[in-house]
Amino acid sequence: MVPEPITSLIAALTRLPGIGPRSAERIALHLVQADPAAVRQLSEVLLRARDCIRFCEPCGALTEDSPCDICSDGRRDASLVCLVEQAVDVLSLEKSGTFRGKYHVLGGRISPLDGVEPDDLRIAELEQRLAKEPVKELIIALGTDVEGDATGYYLAQRLARPGLKITRIAYGLPAGTGLEFADELTLSRALEGRREMT
Ligand SMILES: [Zn+2]
Fold first, then answer.
1. Is 27 helix (H, G, I), strand (E, B) or coil?
2. Whole-angstrom Cα distance, residue 117 to residue 10?
3. Helix (H, G, I), strand (E, B) or coil at 16
4. Is 113 helix (H, G, I), strand (E, B) or coil?
5. What percentage of the chain reaches a pLDDT higher than 70?
6. How far is the CA of 57 from the centre of ligand 1 (A)?
7. Half-sphere CA count of 88, side-chain side, radius 13 A
8. What is the pLDDT of residues 128-179, one digit of tens each?
9. What pairing do the DSSP bridges indicate for beta strands 77-84 and 137-141?
10. 101-105/137-141 β-pairing
11. What's the 153 CA to ligand 1 centre distance in angstroms?
12. Which residues make beta-bridge pairs with 167?
């Protein structure tokens, strides 16, 4: 009979992304036998990270301070905005190190079946930025599945305006996956090979 605190811990860990039941069990059994000080430190960094991190108001990326370092970096090319689905995608593209423009996080994709409508996404915020900021090219870098495609086409139509080029990153990304699963080289190439949407 597994003591209740351990089953609760396993259940909580299983709810984390990428942790299956076996891993959750291994981590839980490790933690309940580990140095209490180390476990306390882990719980403190968890809380601190959660308390300090917020969404950047202009772009939607994860940051300690809003606007984030990328939004407030004058050396980055403000005429180039890369539209991604989730905040984690900004981290992936930053790791690839090739993009020198700014970002906008959509916060999801249009998915009527899951009840996600355009109004649920940060599209109005993007329209405000396009009106205020000197954006010349919007790069659509959404996932390569059906919903990602549909969202991209919807946005290309809704956001079209004189003087704005709308491109999408090249395929070559694994089909049906998000940016977070692509390696850095693939991401760089997808970005370099982007094409204009018409
Ligand atoms: Zn930002």
1. helix
2. 35
3. coil
4. helix
5. 94
6. 7
7. 8
8. 999 999 999 999 999 878 888 899 999 999 999 999 999 998 766 665 666 7
9. parallel
10. unpaired
11. 24
12. 139, 196
